[in-house]
Amino acid sequence: MEASIFRKPYFVGRFLPALLKPRPLPDVPDLRMKFIQALCRAGKIPSGIYSAYEKACKKEANSLLEGVFSDEEDMDDLLLSPMEQLDASLQHFAQIVFTSHQTPKQQAGIPGQISLISGKIHGVLETEHGGSTQNGPIVIDVNSHSFSKAHFRVTDAVLSMVCQLVCGLSQNFPSQNPGWLTQLLAMLTQHSGIIEALLYTVRRQLATQNDNLEFHHVQGLAAILIHLISLPDVFGEISIKSGAEKVLPLQEDVTFLLKCSCKKEMDHVLRYDARFPSTSSTF
Question: How far is the C-alpha of 226 from the C-alpha of 223, rounded, in Å?
């Protein structure tokens, strides 16, 4: 029997392929692993065939682990609240954008992650508010609003991520690509009340001259304003209503707020003006 098994045509053509079928190898060698190792030590298995077998086994193990981690991520979604899922998606988005400036091919993952974020936002609004698609011109009434807590939770999370990411990119990549922010803001217009709540918050920070804002906050707010003002074809007509009959286009309203009638106002204006060039240099 041994002689028939080890005849070269049968051994190489039929026996070894059956024996060396790739599989995730156990941590503790089983009988099959011990038998293969013994044959290898005896010189019965060509080194090239054994090396290919090892690589195939590692590939099988990696595929199995990828399936496990995918299942774990799905389970995390079941365990996390809609808002926690959104936070996690935003952080992953920031990682993709940052990495894409080091490895341009990573940009291909940005649209898909934005779609995922959109779904998470829908989950938050559906759970807490019942959102729908935004249509028509955007008008922000600074004296009254109907935004829910869900709107502000979403916009606060988005603003926090954008401010940190804009600052990080500007410090590491002077010639950054701003396309990710355009895509993100354009997606927000598809959710009822979200882009309005975001603009309401940004405009309030601008109007109150909040001196407690950190550097990255100012830089992020400036980037958002530049995008919304500079790309009317993408975001449509945006107006700010600050009185019964006072309605101004966003650009005119920002110009009105950034006035210089005293030292405090000048300091406030300079904080934003110093950020505008750095966040708009790639337009």
Answer: 5
Q: The tokens of 188 are what?
A: 């927000």
Is residue 280's pLDDT more than 80? no
- Interatomic CA distance for residues 204 and 219, integer angstroms: 16
**pTM passes above 0.70:** no
Side-chain-side CA neighbours of 168 within 13 Å: the count stands at: 13
Rounded-to-integer distance, Cα 83 and Cα 86, Å: 5
pLDDT (tens digit per residue) in 116-148: 999 999 999 886 544 444 556 788 887 878 889
Using one digit for the tens of pLDDT, what is the confidence trace for 236-272?
A: 888 888 776 788 888 888 777 766 555 455 554 545 5
- In the chain, the largest separation of any two C-alpha atoms, in whole Å, equals 102
Q: Who contacts 217 (Cβ-Cβ below 8 Å, separation ≥6)?
A: 163, 205
Tokens of 5: 């098994």
Residue 139, SS3 per DSSP? strand
The dihedral formed by the CA atoms of 110, 116, 118 and 124, expressed in degrees to the nearest 10: -140
**For position 151, what pLDDT does the model report?**
93
Structural domain spans, the chain: 2-62, 82-280
- What would the pLDDT profile of 188-217 be if each residue is shown by its tens digit? 988 888 988 998 888 888 777 556 677 778
Going 36 to 42 to 43 to 48, the CA torsion angle's sign is: positive
